Amino acid sequence: MADKIFIGRRKNAVARVILRSGSGKITVNKREFEKYFPQKTNRDQVLLPLSLTETLGKYDILANTNGGGVTGQSESIRLAIARALIDINPDYRKVLKPEGLLRRDPRMVERKKAGQPKARKKFQFSKR
């Protein structure tokens, strides 16, 4: 049987994740998980759906991610893992949905407007 690819997105980051039963080895862009995400907060984001469903160490995760920054990539992997876990066992939905792990975060960077230094910041107003 061919492996199913699950997609997660966050800001401009896109992650494609494959879950296989195994020993819990996580590979991101052909690199070791701890090397790719040196910050603990980003590693915790990726592991959150596994720890909530108590499947930590039961699946090997192969993730390819591109676009965005480190945090966006870790959160896109988190969404893809949550979707993959539900495909494996639909009962996990009851655990993951209240935590908001099945919803794509719609927040995006607002575009810069003409005549302003940033998206919302204005140049200093001078009355005279």
Key features of this structure:
single chain, 128 residues, alpha+beta, Ribosomal Protein S5, domain 2, five-stranded mixed beta sheet, 21% strand, elongated
Notes on the protein architecture:
The protein has 128 residues and is of the alpha+beta class. The chain has a single domain, classed as Ribosomal Protein S5, domain 2 (2-Layer Sandwich), CATH 3.30.230.10. It contains four helices and five strands; from the N terminus they run ββββααβαα. The protein has helices at 33-36, 40-52, 70-88, 93-96; strands at residues 6-10, 13-21, 26-28, 31-32, 59-66. The chain has a five-stranded mixed beta sheet. Strand 1 (6-10) and strand 2 (13-21) form a beta hairpin. Helix 2 (40-52) packs parallel to helix 3. The longest helix is centred in the middle third of the chain and has 19 residues, at 70-88. The N and C termini lie far apart (74 Å).
Helix and strand topology:
Blueprint (H helix, E strand, L loop, with lengths): L5 E5 L2 E9 L4 E3 L2 E2 H4 L3 H13 L6 E8 L3 H19 L4 H4 L32
Parallel strand pairs: 3-5
Antiparallel strand pairs: 1-2, 2-5, 3-4
Helix pairs in contact: 2-3
Short description:
With 128 residues, the chain is of the alpha+beta class. It has helices at residues 33-36, 40-52, 70-88, 93-96; strands at 6-10, 13-21, 26-28, 31-32, 59-66. The protein contains four helices and five strands.
